[in-house]
Structure formats: C-alpha cells, structure tokens
Design brief:
This protein is mainly beta. Helix content is 10%, strand content 49%. The protein contains two helices and 24 strands. Strands 8, 10, 11, 12, 13, 15, 20, 21, 22 and 24 form a ten-stranded mixed β-sheet that branches. The longest helix has 30 residues. The radius of gyration is 35 Å and the shape is elongated.
C-alpha cells in the first residue's frame, strides 16, 4: 500500500515536470525574434537632369534623380553633398546649389532591420549661377533708390585724402540709355575743387558668399580713381578695417589699363599685402567684366573671366559675413595721385552690376 502511494506520487510529480517543461519549451519558442535577411543586389542609377551630348553634366539646374533597388530592403540611407537622407522608397531627387561643375560622391545603404549593405558612386553635375541681385540700369534718370543710396560730402577725404565732393546731382550721377554714368567734374563746389558720386547698397542689399561682378568702361585722366568694391555690413559696430574690405575693381588714370584687386583686414590694411594687379587693354574705350568669386575657402578675382588672383580665406578673417556693394569715382588722394592740371571731367560708365549665388 505504501509502495503504491509512492509510485502514485512519483507519477504525479513526473507528470507535473513534463507539463512544466512543455510549457517552458513553448514559451522559449515564441520569444525568439526572427533574424532579418540582409539586403542584397543593391543597385544605384543616377540620372543628371537635362543631360545631353552637348551638356554632359546637365542643364545647369543642378538636379539629379537617384533610383535605388535592393532585394529584402525596407529602407535606404543616402549621403549626398555631405548631407544624409533617410527614405523608404527607392527614388530620390536632389538639387545641388554650388555653382560650377563638380564631382560629388554618393553613399547609399539599404536596410532591413539591423542588417544593411552599402555601395558608393559619384556624379559630375553642372550648376549654373543663380542671380541674387542685379541692376541693369535700364531706366533713364536717377539710379533706382530701392537699390542704391549715397555717401555725400567730402568725408574728410574719405580716409585717403581724396579731393572730390560727392553729390547726388544728375550732373554727377545719371542713367542714360542703359548705362550708369558717374561723372567727375572740375568745379568749385562746397569748398572742393572737384565733384563726383559714390553709390552704395548699404541697408538695401548685402550678401555672404557668391560672385559679384561689374561690366564697366573706365574714365580717362590723371587723378581719376574709379572703383567697384565691398565693405562688411557690420561697419557701424566693427569700424574699418575690422569689418573687412574687398576691392574688385580699382584703377587709376595715372597708370591706365591696370586693375588692382585687394583685401583689407586687421593688420593687413592700408598698403595691404593681399593684393594683385592685371593688365586690362583698352579699359577706357571698351567694356570689361570685373568679378570676384567668394567662398569660405577663397576669394578669386577675374577680369573677363580670366583668373589673376586667389586669396585664401580663413575662418578667422572678416570675410565670412555679409558685405554690401559700392561704386564710386574718386579724384586724387593717396592712391589716385596727382590730378592732371588740364583735367576738366571724366566718366565712369557701368553697364550692369550683378550678384550670383
């Protein structure tokens, strides 16, 4: 009887153990997470919008279309133009904005859970310059006051011992037949012996990085000093030279057909070492394009798209903030030099001023 009870109890315990193990085994199976299948057969095609035989790098829009396929992929990560984008479908349209033709690397990864596969490719893309601001001087009369203001008076020689008195009179500044004319005149006016004009976009337009250009024909005469240049927009709180100055066009009648491009900054102002010259034949009888292309890395100076000077920009320079534009025709001074005693008048002619991205 005791033996029977022991067997009975043992059987019961074995049954409990079996049931317990069965339940435990079932729970373990249900808790297992299936391992995702790694993506494979990753393929990337890049279509440059507007690409033709004549335009192998696109139509200038900077747009490309990526088509991505992969087996077992549920999402994708694309690193393009140093930017990362996550997408679920295999199509992505991207627009580059840096002007010029460049080669851009592209990294594409296909994901399924934590499993992924990657590939790299690259594309050559042409981005046309985009106009940010311009004055074509196509309306006769006074220059557009929504775009230009003026410095007037002598400004105590404007820091350069200049001889002119700047006015807003039509005798000194006017638009005629699509051309802005800034005219220096030998005359007695408000205690000065010469008059002229100095126009600027301060408070109306400024920009940071891009291309600024002027198409101009220069005045004739010893002592004339035409210029197209830029000053830091913070000049009221960071007086010159802390604000920075970029001289794109400077020429003097005492040394004709020579363009000076210079940069002024703290410790490198006045007779700055950051300067270069180039010869511009017939600068007083023909229009030429004077330009600067400005980036965080450099400021490059051109005449008629011929590069003649590159300044290496750095993060510590003042040339990483907004700048405004200036057009003026000075007389004499430290740079303009001696005025020809036979001088009567001279005109600085400007076809247009344009700023691109």
């Amino acid at each position: 009887m005791k033996l029977y009870n022991v067997i009975k109890k043992t059987g019961f315990l074995l049954a409990l153990l079996f049931v317990s193990q069965s339940c435990s085994s079932g729970n373990d199976a249900s808790d297992e997470t299936p391992i995702a299948t790694a993506p494979s057969n990753l393929s990337v095609t890049v279509e440059v919008i507007g690409k033709t035989a004549d335009k192998p790098n696109g139509d200038g829009s900077g747009k490309v279309k990526l088509t991505i396929t992969a087996s077992n992929a549920t999402s994708y990560k694309v690193v393009i133009d140093n930017k990362s984008q996550d997408i679920t479908a295999g199509d992505l349209t991207y627009e580059f904005t840096t002007s010029g033709t460049k080669n851009y690397p592209i990294i594409v990864s296909a994901y399924n859970g934590l499993q992924f596969v990657s590939t790299t490719t690259s594309v050559d893309v042409f981005v046309a310059r985009k106009l940010l601001w311009a004055d074509e001087f196509d309306v006769n009369g006074a220059p557009n006051t929504s775009k230009w203001g003026y410095n007037t008076g002598t400004g105590n020689g404007w820091g350069n011992n200049e001889l002119e008195y700047y006015t807003t009179r039509p005798e000194n500044v006017i638009v005629e037949n699509g051309i802005l004319k800034i005219k220096a005149i030998k005359e007695e006016y408000m205690g000065s012996h010469y008059t002229s004009a100095r126009m600027l976009t301060k408070g109306k337009f400024s920009f940071k990085y891009g291309r600024a250009e002027v198409r101009a024909k220069l005045p004739v005469g010893g002592g004339t000093w035409p210029a197209f240049w830029m000053l830091g927009d913070n000049i009221d709180t960071a007086p010159w030279p802390a604000c920075g100055e970029v001289d794109i066009l400077e020429s003097v009648g005492n040394n004709p057909n020579v363009n000076h491009s210079s940069l002024h900054s703290p410790g490198r102002s006045g007779n700055t070492p950051d300067t270069a010259i180039t010869t511009v034949p017939n600068s007083a009888t023909e229009f030429h394009v004077y330009a600067a292309e400005w980036s965080p890395q450099s400021i490059k100076f051109y005449v008629d798209d011929n590069l003649f000077y590159t300044y290496g920009n750095t993060s510590s320079s003042p040339f990483n903030a907004n700048f405004f534009l200036i057009l003026n025709l000075a007389m004499g001074g430290n740079f303009g030099g001696t005025v020809d005693p036979n001088f009567t008048n001279a005109t600085f002619e400007v076809d247009y001023v344009r700023v691109y991205n």
